[in-house]
Specification:
The complex is a heterodimer of chains A (332) and B (77). In chain A, 65% of the residues lie in helices and 6% in strands. Chain A has 13 helices and 6 strands. In chain A, β3 and β4 form a beta hairpin. Chain B has one domain. The longest helix of chain B is centred in the last third of the chain and has 31 residues. Chain B is elongated. The chains are: A mainly alpha (332), B mainly alpha (77). Chains A and B meet through β4, α6, α10, α11 and α12 of A and α1, α2 and α3 of B.
Chain lengths: 332, 77
């Protein structure tokens, strides 16, 4: 049985990686041909980049998760497939037509309903390291509805520089898979593997200089899938810890603007450019505080350097998440 | 090291999450409200939700204070 799972793990990982690696160049050509491109503001010369990359990300997720469902059918995999697909549609709608600040959280909350309807969240408890778990039947349903929009928007908010969202998700997803193995939830660990491989394959085209941006459809798909896995795998706290740099980014942003708005609505930019086109923290007091602005507080850096600092923060959080999953086995 | 204070902030957040568990589990896990008949589970969940929301608000306030303390120099720059 364990050998079967290992073979299936390799198979779905290959499918997830190859599907995204193979379809993304075709998607880039198609988007360029249809003029569906946006300006990359962090480049010295005018550079137009294809957007959105969400469709190829979804192809990779669906191909691998349906294959997994063929071998090991479960409500958890169906919940992952349906919630992720709905989140993709919400993101795609936002990519095509700019939607209001509140629309996305509400639509993503609706995307979480399959998890409840399929009963994939059972048993409804929240597990904490060292101190055990809390059984919260009704409260947990509310938590599910809140978690998907929060995770989706958290990943979307960190999609600010070339390669950051996909690179960050690669680190966080593989960390989550390791954590699921540590807490001995092998079925969900298996279902979480495609997320890491899809992110890794997309990073190939998203890294500096980007050939494609994930757009809202890509970022929300990745974030929502991460959220569902954390719920059906009962590793909500661990998943939040692996995501801490992105959580900090959202927290800093919200605590400085003090309301839910889109990044594009911000008038004062948190980051400006030096004459040699490095990134520099803005000295505009009205500009929001963000993770990138804090990283740049010590001096200007290139886009690639900022990305690597974010990846180091992601690796640090991943290590804390892994330590936390070991702590889940200890009860005080 | 670039962004070293951010590493420290992440570590503080992690400690606060672990500490949060130490408060939430003993308080919420042991709450069991009876005497409301069929409404028992709704009243029970509402009280737990109220305490949880209160703890989250306290957590956000603490994080905000720590953020101002840690990043004071950076934010003012």
């Amino acid at each position: 049985m364990m050998l079967d799972k290992t073979v299936v793990a390799v198979l779905i990982s290959v499918i997830a990686f190859v599907a995204v690696y193979g379809t993304t160049p075709r998607l880039i050509s198609l988007l360029n041909k249809k003029n569906m491109t946006v300006k990359d503001y962090n480049k010295e010369t005018v550079t137009m980049v294809a957007r959105p990359g969400g469709p190829s990300i979804l192809v990779g997720i669906l191909a691998s998760e349906f294959t997994l469902y063929g071998f090991f059918p479960s409500a958890s995999i169906l919940a992952i497939i349906s919630t992720t697909s709905l989140a993709f549609l919400v993101g795609l709608a936002d990519d095509r037509k700019v939607l209001g600040g509140w629309f996305k959280p509400l639509a993503l909350a609706v995307s979480a309903l399959p998890i409840i309807l399929l009963g994939a969240y059972v048993p409804p408890h929240l597990a904490f390291p060292l101190f055990g778990s809390v059984k919260i039947p009704e409260l947990y349903l509310g938590l599910i509805v809140i978690m998907i929009p929060v995770m989706g928007n958290t990943i979307n908010s960190i999609d600010v520089l070339n390669g950051v969202a996909s690179g960050f998700m690669t680190i966080a997803s593989f960390a989550l898979t390791i954590c699921l193995v540590i807490v001995q939830n092998y079925d969900i660990a298996l279902a979480s593997l495609p997320l890491g491989f899809v992110s890794l394959a997309f990073y190939k085209y998203h890294k500096v200089p980007s050939k494609i941006f994930p757009g809202d459809s890509g970022a929300l798909t990745l974030g929502a899938m991460y959220g569902v896995i954390s719920i059906v795998g009962h590793v909500e706290i661990i998943a939040a810890i692996a995501l801490l740099p992105a959580v900090i980014n959202s927290f800093l942003f919200l605590s400085s603007v003090k309301r839910i708005i889109e990044h594009r609505q911000i008038k004062a930019k948190p980051v400006v450019h030096t004459t040699d086109f490095k990134l520099m923290a803005s000295d505009d007091k009205s500009a929001p505080v963000t993770l990138v602005r804090l990283i740049l507080a010590n001096g200007p850096l290139t886009e690639k350097q900022v990305g690597f600092v974010i990846f180091k923060l992601a690796l640090f959080s991943a290590a804390l998440a892994i330590i936390t999953s070991f702590m889940m086995e200890i009860k005080l | 090291m670039k962004g070293s204070l951010i590493f420290f902030y992440i570590f503080v957040m992690w400690i606060l999450i672990i500490t949060g568990g130490a408060i939430i589990v003993p308080i919420i896990a042991h709450i069991s409200i009876h005497g409301f008949g069929k409404l028992d589970s709704i009243v029970d969940s509402s009280v737990k939700a109220g305490i949880a929301i209160m703890l989250v608000i306290i957590w956000i306030l603490i994080m905000s204070k720590i953020k101002n303390w840690i990043f004071h120099r950076q934010i003012n720059r």
